[in-house]
Amino acid sequence: MSENMISKSELCRQLANLGVEPGGVLLVHSAFSHVQPVEDGPSGLIAALEAQLGAQGTLVMPSMSYADEEVFDAKVTPCREEVGIVADTFWRLPHVRRGDNAHAFAASGPQAAFITAPSPLNVPHGLDSAVGRVYELDGQVLLLGVGHDANTTIHLSENLAGVRYQLKSRLRILKDGQPAWFEFAEVNHCCQNFEKMDAWLDARGLQRRGRVGHAEARLMRSKAIVETALEHLSRDETVFLHPRGVDEECDAAWESLSS
Questions:
Q1: pLDDT in tens, 43-82
Q2: Total domain count for the chain?
Q3: b/e for 187-209, b at 16 or more Cβ within 10 A?
Q4: pTM to 2 decimals?
């Protein structure tokens, strides 16, 4: 093992020190390029996460795809590139369950079937979704080498707040056994201003910081994310949008408010 290679046992120690709870539910967003090198690569990181959670714990990762032109197949459709190699490795493991549509999450452990059960296509991050179920189970969220711009639980907050901005989207689905387009409007934007959550959570001591592998890690409860975001959204539903003229996706979100 090379000098800067981090072992799986050390990863477990780091996760424990950060506060990952044995027997709990943990939703992980990661960028392995910041975590590496670790023993056995992405598979070693997954093994360490599952070991720290234990047999009664449930590990959850995003598993959404770019299934815009092809119908999503949970058994073969790869993850979006930005979701990362850890997530794309995770869903392929034989003991892992994966959701049934292009907004899918994957999970292992006792709550995996509940978390990955079918959910509405037109509300990917509502209460009746994987992130909503992690929230209902009082799960934790781990940001590993990524920022809050990757934190899908904040979209849950937007849906619970009833924000009015939406972006048009569409997916290929099977309808009566034949491929067909499903068009819908989704609460979305560029998500860069989700980084505001850092200061809000830190100010209240609701976010723990440390290192896992070689990456900066942030750990918090799903409920802390939602409650904090809801407080700010109740004051200003556009708090996460850039001012007009800064970003195309945010501009489209602003436009949806006036349409």
A1: 999 999 999 999 999 999 999 987 666 788 899 999 988 8
A2: 1
A3: bbbbbbbbebbeebbeeeebbbe
A4: 0.96
